[in-house]
Structures are given as structure tokens and as C-alpha cells.
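Hi Y.,

Following your request, here is the sequence exactly as I used it, all 98 residues.
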Amino acid sequence: MSEEKCKLKTVPFDPRFPQTNQTLNCYVNYIDYHRCVEVLDGDDRCEYFKKVFTTLCPFAWVERWDRLREEGIFPNKIVRVCKPKVDETDIEPKPQKE
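Below is the corresponding structure, written out as C-alpha cells. Let me know if you'd prefer a different format.
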């Protein structure tokens, strides 16, 4: 038989969550992942957040949160928050004081 070596890794320390209870860390990374996907359109850079929340969060929680998001009743806003681009030709110059 051939033995396959696999490296087990845990989530790196996050100074925002120094306590032993990682419930908030789980929730925040779940939200951060979905915000990242919204802003970066599913870029690979979002995978870090997914790895963290899938490691820390119980599967039942993730399933429930996914269902609540689909139903539009998730208790947190996961939306794109961007300022609209302003065309500088539309901006009127301020009158100069004499």
C-alpha cells in the first residue's frame, strides 16, 4: 500500500477574534466571502474567506444562511456598496470669489 501524505492546516490566527469561541469569526468570514464575491465577481481572491468559514462554521449554519440569502431574509446586508462614477464634464465649476 502506498501512503499518501496530506498536510492538515488550520485557520490562521485573526487578531480581531482572540477568544476561544470562534462563532463570530465564522459569521464575519461568511459575510466577507459573499461581499467579496459581489465586489470582485467571484475572483479567486475570495477563496481565503470561503476556506475560513467552511473550516469554522458548522455545515448546518451555512446551509441555513444560504437558504436565508436566497429567500432575501438574511439578517445582514450582503450588497455591493459602490459610489457611482462621476463624469467630470458634468461638474460645473465653482464661481470664483472676487
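The mean pLDDT is 80.

Thanks again,
Q.
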